[in-house]
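Example 3.
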Amino acid sequence: MPRDSEDRSFRYPLKWRIMDGLNAALDLLWPRRLGRYTGWALLTPALLLVGILVLGLFQIAENSLHTLDTSTFLPGEEYTLANYRIIAESPTYWRIVWRSLLGAGLTVFFTLLLALPYSYIMVRTNKAALRKTLLIVLFLPFFIGQVVRAYGILIVMGSSGAVNDALGLVGIEPIRLLFNFPAVVFGLVQYMLPFAVLMLAPALTAIPRETETAASSLGANWVKVFRHVILPMAKPGLVGAALVVGTLSLTDFAMPAMLGGGSQDFIANAIYDQFFRTADQGLGSALALLLVALGSVIAGVVIAFFGAGTLGMRGRK
Amino acid sequence: MNRNITRRGILRTGMATGGAALLTPFAASRIFAQEPEKPAEIIVRAWGGDWVAALKAGVSDRFTEETGIAVRHDLTEDNEIQPKIWAAVAQGRIPPIHVNWDTTTNASKSALRGVTEDLSDLANLSNTTDLAKPIGLDGYPIVNTYGYVYVLAYRPEAFPDGAPKSWRDLLDPRLKRRIALYNDGIGFHFPAQVAGGGSLEDIPGNMDACWEFIREIKNQQPLLGEDPDFTAWFQNGEIDAACTISTNALAAKKNGIDLAWTVPEEGCKFDTDGMWIPQGLPENELYWAKQYINMALSKESQQIWLDGLGLPGVVPDLTPPEGLENDPSYPTKPEDFEDLIRISSKIQIENESEWFAKFKEIMQG
């Protein structure tokens, strides 16, 4: 009877038994017949989060249709478009909207201008030390946060900061580098650069080196290779980075607040003022919806013309 | 009758005397009063920096010592806590703080909205001046705790000929990009009305003079910020003059910056801050929150708290902090108020949004 005893003593490996147990538990929790809905089940948490956001937007839309009664500081009962009329007729808000769009546009331009060579060198270099250095320099700002970085800029570029000290060494009187529109754009570019590099690096990695070598062997110098090979093939990354940098810049609050000296507000600052300074939630809600609409339309137009880039998870369009 | 004095007898007498002492009106009230259950802590919203340090020394520490209740300071900005409290009251939730240390204008908005508790039964109110009473509100939905002046603070080395005499001195070309105002213009509207050639009686109906002067100031490219910004800007050498609460100038001076302040000939805005309690607290916590404000109105607390802030309180006969006696930022006598501008809270509350919007319109150009 040795065979019987061998059969009785045989046991599957522990890993297999755990996997069997987990499979059985999964069958109980999510029977195989529901398999076709698995994708939806995985999407549910994300959909719930977006759903909460959409519910909030409905509430904001409802708020935007009431004006503030300053005798009770409660929203008025009747529905009205007065808040939207105030925005439409206010030169201040038009100026702020234009400044936000211009600031976001310039930030996208300068960020991509800096991010593209940075990403290219990071991806293509054969020197591991250089790649690691570039990666560390890229990720370091992520551990610091936007507000602290803005304070860093305030210290370095202030009237008695390091930059003015350096200018003083060559006989230049201290100049006001902060609290103006260029300072806000500078802060935004500094903040957005890591995002853009992270979006561009995978797109550049996907370009085979052989393609560049082939172009060179056919007589193209590096400028032509860059213009006719790298740029077109990096387009998905450029579009994805532009969308991310553009939308984040358009909705930014901290950089205009800290580096703008109070006179370079973006739309987010105007929203803050209405919600928290004048307690006019109706007007603040109307401005918030304007910002959502503006961002959505711009993103929609970019996607319609250039595709979603790496955000679409395909490298073609 | 032979009465021997023994050691036991002395001990008994001592215990009896001690027991009687415990039943004096003060101590008896401690023992037998129906004091509600004490919470482990109460939360008081405050401004940071020197502001909260002064409150802690003058009121919070004394309150904890007296009651055993810890005080936590919530440094959320007054403007930001306001919608949170309003939402909590509207939804029937317990509000996020027990006591709100707030500007009188902001606090009055909450009172008008009906989210404040009545404070008219505070015992120490009987020992306060008229300044403690909020103007234009029924009863005491809030209590003013001190006054302050939006002075013209300046760096003496930038004014070698002496203190600026007029707000118009800020238009000097050498001060271009070297002056600062609050980012909503608060504190500056009323003196600007006078400096622009207008009259205070025209507020709020006709403030053209105010806006015209602010347009002139705009050409000087002023920095616009909040309380902490002014101290930082003076310290970092970014500005030479600012319209700011004297406490901020005092804070910068304490940090070693050579600063002075003055009330120009057009006058300076005088305003008050106060304290209030949001509705919706459990009964026992409401009781202790009231005791906290009551302590803030006691002479001892006012003296310590306002020494730290360098501001005049609402209790008579406080001793001015060193160097501030007869200072224009520390008005106490009726004649001290002659150069100060005080506009009713009601007018300010009703028109504040419009003034802020107009100021923004000019400054964002």
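Residues 1-11, 13-32 of chain B have pLDDT under 50 and may be disordered. Strands of chain B lie at 41-45, 70-74, 99-103, 143-154, 179-182, 223-225, 241-245, 260-262, 268-276, 340-341.
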